[in-house]
């Protein structure tokens, strides 16, 4: 699974500027293919062939393209629009014609589904999968095991506020268990939807978890009930929505994410939690056919959500690399890279989505000792804040489990990863929004940064005791490559 699935990336968000989020750059106009305006009588059996399989495509039009025009262009290229987002001029299209991409134009259409099918291999166990100590007893108070909440001063915050029901955090993930006793009061079924076809489906079956516990684990960190049983979330007084963007094979294709962002934007959510990166590539390069369409579509969706007041929070990734330093192996497909590959961007046009976009808060991970987790990616200007994600090598002072305890279907389990760090930041952002209901996405991001606890670069980052530094932290105490502006702070969120 992506950040949930393969500890490989989730990656890096450009640091929020002190003056606010910078606006996204305008997209370049792309010429409309002349064949798409063909006489409708020519669009028939002789023009379109249907041998299958039917594939999904992401189609990006010039901004401002009307729905009728988009439909005509797609129909002329032998496709059918499954959904169209006129606000951002992006469509999800299905076609059984193998020539659809060529007819529509590679500068317009791309099928991540086709790329994923051609490269997928069985997923390997990664850093942010459960460690295998699941327990089902929900009557016990497990909060003493939540060292992560101590690091961000959650209990101190709850003495002041647990958050407002007016605040909704969209959990864009693998689905949230609607029956878990710690989540049933927080989860809003009316705001939940499944996006794993690229089209939002509000049916419970579409947004409930099937093959992954990841989304339920993330949701518990954000908003598990403060009821003296089980675990307690960062913001137990807010609502959450299950927005399922991970399919049963563990993939998050761009059309899923676009659907999720647009659903959140049009349904009044305040924050979205994104513990993943978008398939089928670790880094999406803006100068490559297909990939630049993915970049543009996701950028538009994130920017639209920000304009509607939705703060996007995303993981810096589990690749253990400096995301500000170009390398040579970024084009290894995410689902085929060997266990020891540490992908890096080829150049500064290759970014991990969604975290490396503007209008996104990127979160790195620390263990119980407040030191960057060995797997966590980093980079000066790439990380905005840090939060507890766990590290098996950093054991809490009481000798407990080094990973993060949270809810899973039918119980509780520990997991490590930047996936686990992100919901701490999302929960703190939700507390800030509860205190400042008129704040927009940019202001929420700035307050999240400003309230963070300073974490300076470690004097020594030799995790294995070999005498060699495992990574290099650059910057200064208040802002550096490992921790950004510092550790998110729940108490500061409700008292500043």
UniProtKB/TrEMBL annotation:
Q: What GO biological process terms does the UniProt entry carry, in alphabetical order?
A: proteolysis
- The lineage's top-level taxon is Bacteria
Alphabetized InterPro entries for the sequence: Peptidase_S8/S53_dom, Peptidase_S8/S53_dom_sf, Peptidase_S8_Asp-AS, Peptidase_S8_His-AS, Peptidase_S8_Ser-AS, Peptidase_S8_subtilisin-like, Peptidase_S8_subtilisin-rel
Return the Pfam families for the record: Peptidase_S8
Q: Where is this region: Disordered?
A: 103-137, 324-343
Annotated Peptidase S8/S53 domain ranges read 165-450
Per UniProt, which keywords does this protein have?
Hydrolase, Protease, Serine protease, Signal
What would be an example GO MF term here? serine-type endopeptidase activity
Q: Where is the active site?
A: 173 (charge relay system), 214 (charge relay system), 419 (charge relay system)
Q: Tell me its family.
A: Belongs to the peptidase S8 family.
Protein name from the UniProt record: Subtilisin family serine protease
The organism's taxonomic lineage, starting at the top: Bacteria, Bacillati, Actinomycetota, Actinomycetes, Pseudonocardiales
